[in-house]
Write a structure and sequence with these properties.
eight-stranded mixed β-sheet; 19 strands; globular; about 45% helix; peroxisome; 29 helices; single chain
Length: about 700
């Protein structure tokens, strides 16, 4: 690696410009400018690091009075090149570059725009000063990748901005805009106009001395404040080892700088090649792959300038909020004036809440309010390029809505359905142009949840699929492409998981034991707590619909039917699998009685299930269903299942997702789990080709 980056090549222009391909060196009246140019996001690769070390040496030789580090293109440096993290790192490493900056006799200013993240921000923290565009985003996301910052982030950041703030920023991987970071000293100045001019002026107008962050002492703050920040992130970090390490390192930031920097580097190196960071990197790459479909060029996407949303219920409102937040105008259609007013008012109230919490400013709230138009006639959607229907989950209603849209919309406008389960091909069959129809399955709340299942129906045109993917990008959503199938990828796998959980309850595990095993695995909530939260009635209605066609070869669990019949629909009725009289879920003897009755009726002899067995059976159910749907081509690739489950269903990210996790389990043990799953499910159980799918996941060529 880096052959082309070894030599510094000189390009002849009026001023001497040198470049190793990734860092361009230029002298501007005694100030050396080092411009990092490694498209698309100036990742700090080996070539960049070499270019920086060369450039700093060159600036010394040229007797520069100061140096400006700046990024070419859209940002400063978005982070390290994660592909390098799988192998031993090559010299110079980032700490070597920073050591060269600190050792230089001249002051070095980092000029930040776009993003300065991870190694990018650490590089900037290693400089003497930081000047930034007000909207530049600064952050240290290493914790979200199972690591700690490894180039001084845990040491230089607290010395500049204090320990408690640093703990929050590092452990929660928060990004903050430079304008917000100015008051507490993370940046020294904001640049309203041209960034490079501002940085040059910053160095020229006032004599600047060296000011190494490592030599500073963290601003004083009460120990309790620091401890409170630590306690808070530990709770949220769900006990991940890297979070605890990050806290320890930040807390030590008033100690000897060299010793602490060495400590940090050693922790970073261990975590970098550890199982969690390796899994999280795999997931990171899987997420990027999931946004791509072979043969589909995003540039071919039909353009979308205004989005229509039909139905202003839970999902319609959420989708409208998400689209407005992305800066696109929305036309919202409801059935009548009253329903429309309710929906528009609710969106307004939500904006007000966001404003009160400081999540958006008054200008943004006004702009979003102004960009929302409400109508109660399909004709009002005529100027939309893409319309998403989020009306009742009913084939008849949806077909009627689509027919109305076809009559109203211009021919090239895209029609999308947010259906959870329905067959989109059947929905669009009666249209003249079913090729303009796509599924866009959002998750609730749609403006918060990152996942978007983009459903490619049999007839969906390539430029319509591209429009769906482009919209996902515009909304900062993680897309996963699915084919039509009952529940697409996520809900289909979730249904298999919930079925297994209910069977476990029937066979002897208490709901709280199942939920505890699942949270013990790393989910935020177990399946029964989730069912109570979303309401038991939707699944009940579905079971009643499917009663006639139910396969008698699959064991059926009657417990949730009895709960619903008893009016226990979940949290909203104060009781479901749990009792909510106290506000918190409590095990309920009435539920235990229902379970016992149903067990007797089913002739089940109950037995104990250790927590680990519960976990492994639920994983087996997920993995088996995933294998079935990959076999059917519902998901493009095994890693898309991992992306779906981690972004939409709370599957713990640090495992890499269910299939990544399964591929690292003992095969004999996994086979035994799958056999047990088959036995528990009934004779009609369908076993997916798990071995083949995991093989595909593991083979580098396929992925
Ligand atoms: P909801 O019942 O809260 O909202 C549906 C809204 O559509 C109602 O406000 C109703 O007045 C309106 N509506 C019905 N027919 C209409 C028509 N012909 N024209 C205009 N408006 C009409 O339902 P929800 O939960 O928002 O679900 C909507 C769709 O989203 C369903 O297909 C559902 O399966 C799907 N979905 C729901 C999720 C959830 O968590 N609730 C998650 C993902 C998808």
């Amino acid at each position: 690696a880096g052959a082309k980056s070894q030599g510094v090549l000189t390009v002849k222009t009026e001023t001497a410009v040198r470049s190793n391909g990734s860092v361009i060196y230029r002298m501007d009246d005694r100030i050396a400018v080092l411009e990092i140019s490694n498209p698309p996001v100036n990742a700090s690769s080996l070539a960049v690091r070499m270019g920086l070390v060369d450039g700093l040496a060159r600036a010394g030789a040229d007797c520069a009075a100061g140096v400006v580090l700046i990024g070419a293109g859209k940002c400063f440096v978005a982070g390290s090149d994660l592909r390098e993290f799988e192998l031993p790192l090559s010299k110079p490493e980032l700490p070597d570059v920073i050591a060269a900056i600190e050792a230089a006799e001249f002051p070095v200013v980092a000029a930040l725009h776009g993003v300065a993240l991870g190694g990018g921000l650490e590089l900037a923290l290693g400089c003497d000063y930081r000047i930034a565009k007000p909207d530049a985003q600064l952050g240290l996301p290493e914790a979200s990748l199972g690591m700690v910052p490894g180039a001084g982030g845990t040491q230089r950041l607290p010395r500049l901005i204090g320990k408690s703030r640093s703990i929050g920023m590092i452990c929660q991987a928060t990004r903050i805009p430079a304008a917000e970071a100015l008051p507490f000293g993370l940046v020294d100045a904001l640049a309203e106009g041209d960034l490079l001019d501002a940085a040059l002026t910053f160095l020229r107008d006032t004599p600047r001395t060296k000011r190494r962050a490592r030599d500073l002492t963290p601003p004083p703050e009460p120990t309790e404040t620091v401890q409170a920040a630590a306690d808070q992130v530990l709770r949220r970090g769900r006990g991940r080892p890297n979070v605890a390490e990050a806290i320890r390192l930040v807390q030590g930031a008033d100690g000897d700088a060299s010793a602490m920097l060495a400590d940090e580097r050693a922790v970073f190196q261990t975590l970098r090649v550890g199982p969690e960071a390796t899994a999280l990197r795999a997931l990171f790459f899987a997420e990027r792959r999931a946004a791509m479909v072979d043969s589909i060029d995003l540039k071919s996407a039909r353009p979308v300038r205004r989005v229509g949303v039909i139905g202003g219920g839970t999902m319609g409102q959420g989708i409208a909020r998400a689209v407005l937040a992305a800066g696109l105008p929305v036309t919202l259609l409801e059935r009548d004036a009253d329903a429309l007013k309710r929906a528009v008012d609710a969106i307004g109230t939500h904006l007000q809440g966001q404003l009160a919490k400081g999540r958006i400013d008054a200008g943004q709230a006004d702009a979003r309010r102004a960009a929302l138009t409400g109508v109660f006639d399909t004709a009002g959607l005529a100027d939309c390029d893409l319309v998403i229907e989020a009306v009742f989950e009913d084939m008849g209603v949806k077909r009627e809505v689509l027919a109305g849209l076809e009559r109203t919309l211009p021919a090239e406008a895209v029609i999308a359905s947010n259906t959870s389960y329905l067959d989109i091909d059947e929905m669009s069959a009666a249209l003249d142009h079913p090729d303009r129809v796509i599924g866009l399955h959002f998750f609730s709340p749609a403006d918060v949840m990152p996942l978007l299942e983009v459903v490619r129906a049999r007839s969906t045109a390539p430029d319509v699929l591209a429009a769906g993917l482009a919209l996902a990008r515009r909304l900062s959503k993680q897309p996963v492409v699915a084919k039509v199938s009952e529940g697409f990828i996520g809900n289909r796998i979730y249904a298999a998981y919930r079925r297994r959980a209910e069977l476990l309850a029937l066979d002897g595990a208490t709901p709280q034991a199942v939920d505890a095993a699942v949270t013990g695995f790393g989910f935020a909530m177990g399946p029964f707590a989730v069912a109570d939260m979303s309401g038991l009635d939707i699944a009940w209605a579905m079971r009643k619909r499917q009663a006639a066609t139910r396969d008698p070869g699959l064991r059926y669990v009657t417990i949730p039917d009895r709960l619903c019949e008893a009016g226990r629909l979940g949290r909203k009725t104060g009781a479901g699998w749990y009792d909510y009289a106290t506000g918190k879920p409590q095990p309920d003897p009435a539920v235990a009685e229902i379970i016992e009755t149903e067990r007797r009726a089913a002739g089940v002899t109950s037995r104990d299930f250790p927590g680990e067995e519960i976990q492994r059976q639920l994983m087996a159910a997920i993995v088996n269903e995933a294998a079935c749907l990959i076999d059917e081509g519902v998901a493009q690739r095994p890693s898309d299942v991992d992306v779906t489950m981690c972004n939409g269903y709370g599957f713990p990210r640090w495992t890499g997702g269910p299939l990544y996790w399964a591929a690292r389990q003992d095969r004999g043990r996994l086979r035994a789990d799958l056999t047990q799953l088959a036995q528990a499910s009934g004779p009609a159980h369908r076993a997916g080709p798990v071995g083949a799918v995991l093989g595909r996941l593991m083979s580098a060529t396929e992925e």
